[in-house]
Amino acid sequence: MATAQKRKYLKMTLATAWICVLTMLLLSWQVIAGFVSGHYTTGEVVDKQVYIEHIRGVGAPRESELHEVSVQYQVNGQVYQVLANAHVYSGLGLIEQGSELTVVYAADNPAQAQVLSYALYSPMVSILGYVAFISFLVGIPRWWLWRNKPVAPE
């Protein structure tokens, strides 16, 4: 494979990594902006619900567990509550009743909030983060080796 073709693939690999990172940032922008601006507090899981969802499709019917946690937090002496989908990670014991989680809220409306937790954002991080990590792991060493290497005309 020619050097020019290798560099083209390298550019695509690094572009894929940056697209994944930017997608994660865009999907989490409200939470990141609230955290950076200092509008966050600690909340406590006061309730944990497990729902059984019946899935019908091709083949035998299946059941899936849906975990939802209720997090209570306080801003300026006022108590608020937010519901968050806890995915399967609360089933593994990572989030239980009484757990403390970081809650990011809107400055003008503290009732509008989201829970900042890896266990709650894990599907996005697991998919996009893995792709970005592998792309950077492969791309950056190659870029470092090829950055000053001249491309011979073909």
Number of helices: 3
The SSE order reads: HHEEEEEH
Strand content: 25-35%
Q: How many strand segments? A: 5
Please state the average pLDDT score: 77
Distance between the termini: 11 Å
* Tally of domains: 1
Radius of gyration: 22 Å
Write out the strand line-up for the largest beta sheet, numbering strands in chain order: 3-2-1-4-5
Estimate percent helicity: 40-55%
List keywords for this structure.
154 residues, alpha+beta, 5-stranded antiparallel sheet, 5 strands, flat, DUF3592, transmembrane, transmembrane helix, DUF3592 domain-containing protein
Summed up, what is this model?
The protein has three helices and five strands, in the order H-H-E-E-E-E-E-H. It is α+β, with helices and mostly antiparallel strands and 154 residues long.
Topology:
Elements: H1 3-27, H2 29-36, E1 40-55, E2 62-75, E3 78-85, E4 100-105, E5 113-116, H3 118-146
Helix pairs in contact: 1-3
Please give a structural write-up:
The protein has 154 residues and is an alpha+beta fold. The chain has one domain (3-146). It has helices spanning 3-27, 29-36, 118-146; strands at residues 40-55, 62-75, 78-85, 100-105, 113-116. A 5-stranded antiparallel beta sheet has the order 3-2-1-4-5. α1 packs antiparallel against α3 (118-146). The radius of gyration is 22 Å and the shape is flat. Residues 41-115 form the DUF3592 domain. Keywords: Membrane, Transmembrane, Transmembrane helix.
